[in-house]
Design a protein that fits this description.
single chain; alpha+beta; 364 residues; 13 helices
C-alpha cells in the first residue's frame, strides 16, 4: 500500500497516542501490583513458617484425619514442612497403625518407641516425661496435659518437629532427616513420600531466607541505627554457624549480633553471657526490632545465664545462628521456641546511649 503524507501523519499520530497511553498506564499497573510479586510473578509470603503445601488426594486418603491435623498444626508451630513430618510418620509406623513392637508400648529391637520412633534416651530418658522436670531430650507436650508421652501422637509429632528443626529443617531437610535416621536411603524414601503428600509434588522451603522479605523489615525499623543493624544482620543469612565466629564468613549466635551492632558504629559485649546483663530488660510483648531475645540452651546455662541469643527483626521473628547442625544463619520464629527467658534492649544501655550521642555529634 502506498503511504501518502496524510496516512503517514495519521500513523505517527496513532503511535504517539499509544506511547502516551503506555506511559500513563504502566505506572498505574506498577502501583497496583502487589509488592510481594517477584521474579516471574512468584508470590513470596514473608510470614509463612512452613505451612506452604496443600494436601494432595494421596495424603487425604492415606493419613488418618487426626494425624493429618497434628502434622499440620505442629509443623506450622515449629516451622517444619508438615508433609516431611507426615512422611516420617508414614515411614516409621504407618501413622501409628503398625503392629510392630514399640509402636504402642515397649521398644523395638533398636530401642525406639512410639508413632515417630524415638529412642528413649533421645526422648528424655523414659517414655513419659513430666514437663515440669529437668531432662535432656525432645520430650514434648503436644496435648497440654503436662506430660511428654512418647506413645502419644500429639506429643511424639511435636517432638519430631522440634528434632527436625533443631537439625536443619526447613531449609536443610535432607540433613535433618539424616540425623533422624542415619541412612541416605531413609532420607530418599521420606522425601519421596513427602512429595506424594504435597499437592504440588514438591518439598518446598519457606521463604525466611528470601531477600524479597528484607526491605519491609528494614523500612519498619524504629530508627536509622536499627535499620543499619538489621541490614547487616539480614545480609549474613545463608552463612554457616561457627562457634566463636564473628565473621566475615561465619558467625555464632552472639557473634552475628556483635558484628551487626558494630556495623552501626556501636560496641556491645561479644558473648551471650555478656549480652544478657548488658541490655535493659524488656517485657514480653514490648520487644521491637533491634532488641535481643535469649534462651536457656541446656547444660551450663540457666534462666539467669542464658546460652543462646537471637536478634529481633520483627514481632515474633528473629535472626539467629543456632548451631553447626541447625543449618545456616536464618530468620525464624522465637514465639514457637521453648526455653525463652527474656528480652533486652542494648540501645538503652548507658554506654550505648553515650556512643549514640558521639555518632550524632562527633565533636563531643
Amino acid at each position: 500500500m502506498k503511504l501518502t503524507r496524510g496516512r503517514i501523519a495519521l500513523l505517527v499520530g496513532l503511535a504517539g497516542l499509544l506511547l502516551l497511553v503506555a506511559v500513563v498506564v504502566s505506572p498505574l499497573l506498577l502501583m497496583s501490583m502487589p509488592s510481594f510479586l517477584s521474579n516471574g510473578g512468584t508470590t513470596v509470603d514473608c510470614d509463612d513458617q512452613a505451612q506452604v503445601e496443600e494436601v494432595s488426594d494421596s495424603a487425604t486418603s492415606d493419613i488418618p484425619e487426626d494425624y493429618l491435623e497434628l502434622y499440620k498444626e505442629h509443623g506450622k508451630k515449629i516451622g517444619v514442612q508438615w508433609n516431611i513430618l507426615a512422611a516420617v510418620g508414614k515411614r516409621e509406623t504407618d501413622h501409628g497403625r503398625s503392629d510392630l513392637p514399640g509402636v504402642r508400648s515397649g521398644t523395638n529391637h533398636a530401642g525406639a518407641a512410639g508413632p515417630m520412633q524415638f529412642l528413649i534416651s533421645t526422648w528424655g530418658g523414659k517414655a513419659r516425661v513430666p514437663m515440669s522436670s529437668t531432662f535432656n531430650g525432645y520430650a514434648s507436650d503436644g496435648d497440654g496435659d503436662g506430660i511428654g508421652d512418647v506413645y502419644n501422637p500429639a506429643d511424639a509429632i511435636l517432638g519430631a518437629a522440634r528434632m527436625l528443626k533443631r537439625n536443619g529443617a526447613p531449609e536443610n531437610v535432607r540433613q535433618a532427616l539424616f540425623v533422624y535416621n542415619r541412612a541416605w536411603w531413609y532420607v530418599d524414601q521420606v522425601e519421596e513420600i513427602a512429595r506424594k503428600y504435597a499437592k504440588s509434588g514438591e518439598v518446598k522451603v519457606p521463604p525466611q531466607a528470601s531477600e524479597d522479605c528484607d526491605e519491609p523489615l528494614i523500612e519498619a525499623a524504629p530508627s536509622d541505627v536499627v535499620a543499619k543493624i538489621l541490614q547487616f544482620a539480614l545480609a549474613q543469612r545463608g552463612k554457616p554457624y561457627l562457634w566463636g565466629g564473628t565473621g566475615p564468613d561465619a558467625f555464632d549466635c552472639s557473634g552475628v549480633i556483635y558484628a551487626a551492632y558494630r556495623s552501626a558504629g556501636l560496641s556491645i559485649p561479644r558473648t551471650t553471657f555478656g549480652q544478657w546483663p548488658f541490655g535493659v530488660k524488656i517485657q514480653e510483648g514490648e520487644e521491637q526490632p533491634g532488641d535481643l531475645v535469649f534462651f536457656n540452651s541446656g547444660p551450663g546455662t540457666s534462666p539467669n545465664s542464658p546460652g543462646h541469643v537471637g536478634l529481633v527483626v520483627s514481632k515474633g521473628k528473629m535472626l539467629e545462628a543456632r548451631c553447626r547442625l541447625c543449618g545456616p544463619i536464618k530468620v525464624t520464629s522465637y514465639q514457637a521456641r521453648q526455653n525463652r527467658v527474656g528480652f533486652t534492649r542494648p540501645l538503652q544501655n548507658p554506654d550505648v546511649l553515650e556512643q549514640l550521642k558521639k555518632l550524632h555529634n562527633p565533636a563531643l
